[in-house]
Write a structure and sequence with these properties.
Helices cover about 65% and strands about 0% of the residues. By secondary structure, the protein is an all-alpha fold. It has one domain (about 1-360). It is globular and about 55 Å long.
């Protein structure tokens, strides 16, 4: 919205700064953090008063988690208010990419909110029926990917392939797979997978939010470079007109995440809940689809992949052999059962997440 102030640049040269994505990204980061810091305490008091018993603790979870009983959930509302408010203020609202990301963020956030609501009101950790939840997530993701494919200006590459429906492979300059209309299904799968992977990671105080911010910072760089033709040509990555605006959303996510971490640092005053984790994962997935870096998301979000795979392997092994691979899944609980303290698990997983992010960013130059 504030971008339109640049139109008065001829008479007020100072407002020309609103033309620059870098300036607006910094503004979005600061604004989102400020929103969470200002409204966070009130939101926490309101949720604590309404929820009484707080988020239900898994009966089969680590014994150390029972001391967290009574901590309110739905803290993702704080993050979403900061991200959405800041994005509407600083981003170019004519961008289809911005609205596609906001669609997934709000839609997944609403699903997560309802899931958290059921858990709190029924005092049951199960929440929303899984199949129905996945169906709704796929419908929202399909719509967002359709918008990206149909209205995103991506053109064709040197081989004449329509890049709107193309899957781009890192490390290779010219390896592109045209998926046609199947790209919408593939993109939806990426978005839904990202949302649920982050959701599985959110099990310890501060464990999910810092890796999310690291991934957001990485994709902020990718979005900016992909949306700048000079940088995209130099790095030999695909240029996607308009994706630079997604760097502003990434900046807002980092700012809101910093604000939330202030309250979520151990011992957490509030949990993110599915309201936040599902929405933030879906947001990252949508940005990856828009910037044509879906495979790179697997690298940058390697920690989330690791958490999701641990659950898949645990369930498959138990159903097929009756034996468990890990002491408990997701894998962060496995390390707790091995004797790691919660802070050790969280900080070491942050380090792993940073290493994955650096590996993912390295793909921009390794062509």
């Amino acid at each position: 919205m504030l971008q339109y102030l640049a139109e008065f640049g001829d008479t007020l040269p100072l407002v020309n700064v609103f033309r620059y994505i870098t300036f607006r990204t910094g503004g979005a980061l600061f604004t989102a953090a400020l929103i969470v810091f200002l409204f966070g305490p009130g939101i926490i008091r309101s949720l604590r008063g309404r929820q009484k018993k707080g988020q239900p603790i898994r009966a089969d979870g680590p014994a150390t988690h029972f001391k967290k009983a009574g901590t309110p959930t739905m803290g993702g509302l704080m993050i979403l208010v900061g991200v959405i408010g800041s994005t509407l203020l600083w981003a170019n609202l004519t961008s289809v990419f911005v609205w596609a990301v906001l669609l997934v963020t709000i839609g997944f956030g609403a699903i997560g909110f309802y899931d958290d609501y059921l858990k709190v009101t029924k005092s049951d950790s199960k929440g929303f029926p899984g199949k129905l939840r996945l169906l709704l997530e796929f419908l929202i993701a399909l719509l967002a990917c359709f918008l990206i494919m149909q209205f995103g200006e991506q053109g064709t590459n040197a081989q004449g392939i329509d890049m709107r429906s193309a899957l781009v492979f890192p490390f290779f300059k010219d390896l592109v797979l045209n998926l046609g209309w199947f790209f919408i299904v593939f993109g939806a799968f990426v978005v839904v997978s990202a949302g649920n992977a982050v959701n599985l990671t959110d099990g310890l105080d501060g464990l999910a939010i810092v890796p999310v911010m690291i991934a957001a910072g990485s994709f902020g760089v990718i979005a900016y470079l992909s949306g700048n033709k000079v940088f995209a040509d130099y790095l030999q990555i695909h240029f996607v007109l308009g994706t630079g605006e997604l760097a502003i959303i990434c900046g807002a996510l980092i700012g809101a995440g910093l604000g939330f971490l202030w309250f979520n640092a151990p011992p957490a005053a509030i949990f993110m809940g599915d309201t936040g984790s599902l929405a933030l994962g879906g947001m990252l997935g949508t940005i990856a689809v828009a910037t044509k870096h879906e495979i790179v998301l697997v690298i940058i979000g390697g920690l989330f992949v690791m958490e999701a795979v641990s659950v898949i392997l645990q369930v498959a092994s138990y159903k097929m052999t009756g034996k468990r691979i890990f002491k408990m899944a997701p894998i962060h609980h496995h390390f707790e059962q091995l004797g790691w303290t919660e802070s050790q698990v969280v900080i070491r997983f942050w380090i792993i997440s940073l290493m994955f992010a650096l590996m993912g960013l390295a793909t921009l130059k390794l062509r």
